[in-house]
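Researcher: Going back to the complex we discussed earlier. I've cleaned up the inputs and rechecked each line, so this should be the final set. Can you rerun the prediction on the complete assembly and write out the structure?
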Amino acid sequence: MRVALFLTCVNDTLYPDTGRAVVRLLTRLGVEVDFPPGQTCCGQAHYNTGYRHEAEPLALRYADVFREYDAIVTPSGSCGAMVRELYPRLGARARAEGRGDTLATRLAPVIPKTYELTEFLVDVLGATDVGAYYPHRVTYHPTCHGLRSLGLGDRPRRLLEAVRGLELVELPGADECCGFGGTFAVKNPDVSAAMGVDKVRNAESTGAEVLCAADNACLMHLGGTMARLRVGMRPVHIAEILASTEQEPPR
Amino acid sequence: MSGMFVGMPAFPKAAHEVVGNQTLRGNLRHATHTIRAKRAKAVDELSDWAELREAGRRIKDHTLRHLDRCLEQLEESVTAAGGTVHWAADADEANRIVVELVRDTGESEVVKVKSMATQEIGLNEALEAEGIRAYETDLAELIVQLGKDRPSHILVPAIHRNRGEIRDIFRSEMGRWGRPAPQGLSDSPAELAEASRLHLREKFLRAKVGISGANFMVAESGTLVVVESEGNGRMCLTLPETLISVVGIEKIVPTWRDLEVFLQTLPRSSTAERMNPYTSTWTGITDGDGPSVFHLVLLDNGRTDALADQVGRQALRCIRCSACLNVCPVYERAGGHAYGSVYPGPIGAILTPQLRGTQSEIDASLPYASSLCGACYEVCPVAIDIPEVLVHLRERVVQGGPVTRAGNKVVLKPAKGHAAERAAMRAAQWAFGHPGVLRTGQRLASRSRRFHPRTLPGPGRAWSASRDLPTVPAEPFRDWWQRGHGGEEAK
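Model: Rerun complete. Updated structure for the full complex:
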């Protein structure tokens, strides 16, 4: 099986540790993973801000770059949801605008082959115990697009529960949005910040050392809020927890 | 739409005030979380909720597809049952019709059932201008009216008020409108309810004209339906001699049988009840039973324009349950007034810009009043994909394009104030189209990282005023990958 990593532009630029963790984790599980260098951005920020036409070339680039692979794995619920939920919509809208089936046809092959990381682990590899070791108290925030668009359900939780040494504590109001919302964070900064503070306070109340999520964009917002509030917790992407072992603790 | 919202600031500015008001934030958090939990419980009781939701969506979509025929059938049925049907293209026309109808009765006051359509058109203000006093009889609407306030929730319009504030309003204002509040009125719910009963009772018994909306209109029988909790609606619908109902054209269902679905989904979604306490239905007029004159004013006011939009038309499925408001994290923190419309919350953010257009500052800001978290879509009993419509309307704001306004096809220009954003989006698109350019940018950011400020100036402050910036790593992932082709040897 040829597996490609779609790291996403945010992770590539700001969170390379998450990318390295995915590579280490998948390699440990016997999956050879490739990083096609032509990949850039899925176009989600464009699409969700109202620039659908600007998102189309980025979607086409994604389709071209990843066409040859059997599976495409991404450590981002929202970018995964962009491909799986919104690429079909891009094609349908182009058709409705009288631009034919070209866009839909070119995007179609990569859509079902795109998996969010925890989906790939649980559904494709059939693994919930990935042999990880992470001796910390962790609370998990299910990010909105992973939760509601992709329907990740309890997959991340099952993976975390199987990590040795990890104590998973319940996050109050877990399924409420953290307030990031892409350009929402700067277009409605007061509401976004208020949502972030409430999420951080809920996380703090669990006594966890680590706030875990499967999306670094949300963690960037929450981590920035934690730092500003001087809350003694750290945001960690689930890939970095699952990649860590006794021999190779997180860096 | 109602004049009381004219000149509202854009959503982010209005929300700014509320976010800092801890009392109001507390009221909203408590109220929305309570109803949210109760709704979830009421919905979980039904094993066929998903099927009911899908049935509701289909009935509404089918009706909207055949709206012309359904409306004509309704007009025939209502007329055959002794009612008179009037067609109003917009708010002004609807108000003119109602004013004329009230004038013809010779009366100078009316009692009102809680109705979103009459608020949407600003009917109370239009009647007032003609010397006709309209008394709201729903408890929360009464609080809003007495307090010269604006509604902030579809179902609970005074959700932003607490008990103490309500007592103060009753004490100081009831006397100006009729029977004053009892001496020594406390803020206990029972005393407040009794005060409003006494105050309203004289109005019910005196009124010769009642004005209502309707939750549903049945095309085949000409029956109108109002669901409510307090019984004030039943009073207004049965005691006056003349009943005037102002109803949006999308409130129609083809058959009586279709009500079976909505009479299950609406109360559970709105008040978290298995069944609402009062369901009133009436079909034209009946000798010796209820009003002897019945007028139905069918209101368009932008609905046909919304219907012409393939993506946006799903907003017309709305049954005004408010479930989306109660789960919305943005509504919870910004409050209803920030939406600048009688329709607040997620549904307001997609309905208002379609009914009023996207030309004003507030209306153009509404599609952005959402983090697109999808909680609204999840609870909607008629499966309106609110995030999909929000994004569609954002596109309309920033890119313009073809829309229907007042029945005419026009091409909108992109809204002003998005030039810098548009340039940034296009620049990003270009960079993302050239991986080499992206890598050069990433390397520049990495190499200059020691000089990055902790906070940003100008528009960047929207981020850094409340959040630290992420630290840029020493190198982007793609450089690490290309140096060592990934794998463990790359360490």
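Model: Worth noting: Chain B touches chain A through 65 residues (CB under 8 Å).
Researcher: Good, that matches what I expected from the previous run.
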